[in-house]
Amino acid sequence: xxxxxxxxxxxxxMTQWEQIQGEQMILQGVQPLWxxxxxxxxxxxxxxxxxxxxxxxxxxxxxKQLLEKLNLGIIxxxxxxxxxxxxxxxxxxxxLVMKILNCSQIxxxxxxxxxxMDGPEELRxxxxxxxxxxxxxxxxxxxxxxxxxxxxxxLGIQFKKRxxxxxxxxxxWKRSPYLFRKTLAIAIRAxxxxxxxxxxxxxxxLILLHKSKEQLKIMTLQIIDFLQNLGWKLEKQKFIIxxxxxxxxxxxxxxxxxxxxxMTKPRRRxxxxxxKQWIDKTYATNIVKIKDIASIVGEINFLRFQFxxxxxxxxxxxxxxxxxxxxxxxxxxLKLNKRILGNLQMILKLIKNNEPRxxxxxxxxxxxxxxxxxxxxxxxxxxxxxxxxxxxxxxHGWHLKSSNQRELAAVLISLRIWKTSLLDQRKDCLLxxxxxxxxxxxxxRWRAAQQSxxxxxxxxxxxxx
Length: 465
Hints:
single chain; Ubiquitin-like (UB roll); globular; 465 residues; four-stranded antiparallel β-sheet; HIV Type 1 Reverse Transcriptase, Chain A, domain 1; alpha+beta; 15 helices
């Protein structure tokens, strides 16, 4: 297996895949799923200058990476290419340069697929206090999956008047994450059946959890052998084989003894630098690309695991981005509005403080049940073995247009009136019961539609201040 070409590694272990009912997935490879039967003809007729162009240093780096992929069998040289895709080089945060395939043209003509990745929140749900963890990593993960002969001609690239196509699944195709996750999930289900262990993966990163340090160490070595026997090539330099209760995963530092998580120091430093740059740009009302502001919004969204309330300070940012996309589309530019300064400064303050996220669900003996209709609103509060009931009519100051707004307004009024009694014990949580699922969801996530945003914001500050 050491010198075997990447796309053939899983197929060469077909006997092992048959034992876990995964042979069909491996044999069929990646098939094209076009939006219509006319797509192949349309792509064949499309002409674009897709050969890589760059300065001498970039061409040398590109040629080096191309030769490496040829030797690994990830791509092959061929004259039979129907469509040639753009490629470019990107420098990663660790200094390494990556060759990226731009499949935007064929992606627009490929059927969409919904995929839900397991992130930090899903890890929190299975994590228990005192758990030990080990982490594994799959090398060049996507390239293990074979591209079918029907799709290969559409995954072509050009370099110095030579044509190549991908034999192993490339990263740039829109269905790649879904198909890789679907293939790896077969192996993970087999691991869970064979070993009593908790497993989660995010793309090519696998985390193993167990209460016993010694048992986890033994099982980790056994699981490594199991994955290698299936043909997966693992990145041993990124392994954490020694079980730990303090570990980094998805740029979060988890502490299972105290059940806390916060962003890693490099991530915090990087976000502080980026936000300070955006604050300076906003003060100067610079003109920026819409894609750039979408990028920083995406990075801030990633912080929602540690700071669920961060959505409250992203409203102006999201509004400015959305309006710009409607007017100028994604390739356009926008002039930064100083109205987003408060948002950026508050988010920067949260990052500087870097307060840890409590991974345990709170338990409260204080229960507040709210209800409302078009004429009145009411609340029932249970605490200290007492039941308090209150109700009142809406006054003329409330202009509520939906049941969601009325329900949230009832919660806000109850918090304002009974805040002193509810928070006198300084507990961290309050159990809210409501028959309005939208209100429950939005308060739990601190996210809301534009028409209800102000009510949610006031409810947050009423409870937390």
